[in-house]
Model the fold of this input.
Amino acid sequence: MKEIAIIGVPVETIIHYFCDEFILPHQVYLPGSTNKIREYLIECNKNYNSVKLVDKGELNLESPKKEVLTDVLKNYRTSLFSEITLDIIKEKKNFVLKQKENFDHVVCIGPSHFGALFLYEKKDIVARFDFHGDYEPSYKSNSFTPTHATYMNIVKEMGKIKVINYGWGGTYLDNKNKHPGMSVYGKEGKIGDNLHKKANYFDVDVDCFEKDFKIARFWKDFEKEKSQCCPTFIPKQLEVMISEAKPKKIGIWGYNWDYDDYGNGKRFIENVIFNCLSGQK
Done:
């Protein structure tokens, strides 16, 4: 029987607007944002004998650094938010990585891709699945604040991490109609290249999936911007790759229960944990 730990990473990206002018995103602590998906998975475990799922709860990321944000995305009220800093990630990261010693696999789930930093460490081989590159080549010269859109710059600074990007730009390497989503750090992978089989960490943003699956907030925020919405990846493809690699660490990011319109997201996560990692698929 496989023993698998799940950890909620309640980091959310809040876009702050002032006088209709775009301000850099804030990474904030949003306690309770992973409760529903974790409760669902624990209930699912009753139907699977091949896995013992252990819920390690949500990370407590409360910070003394708080800011009142107004005119944020319409789904949030004006509120005092606790900001997530790199120091907080470093402080809590040891607990997350420690679970590798106690379990066959560790699965982290959170609403912001910024949470992926909790699982990155030196010497990782990472299969990364995202429509966006989340990497800014001029990061150092422009002194960008670390966000979900520049977290790969932090990964680069960590050194000795090999990253293979799948789904970047929404299509595959040999497609002439490719629409690159930002710059990318590491190599670009291609379905069938088998590079993912050596990966010990699968870093997954659910906006890599075809828009018809309606798994991510991305589709609701930008559904009218057709040029940005052209991923062609589907969950079954990723499930096959996870089944082949059975990585020690998996992070599933950009997932919010309230945006999972058809339940495709929760079923994908269920399949990953109870079928792909357990060897049933």
Remarks:
- The CA atoms of residues 122 and 158 lie 7 Å apart.
- The two ends are 15 Å apart (CA to CA).
- The first strand starts at residue 2 and ends at 8.
- Helices lie at 35-44, 86-102, 139-142, 151-158, 217-221, 235-245, 264-276.
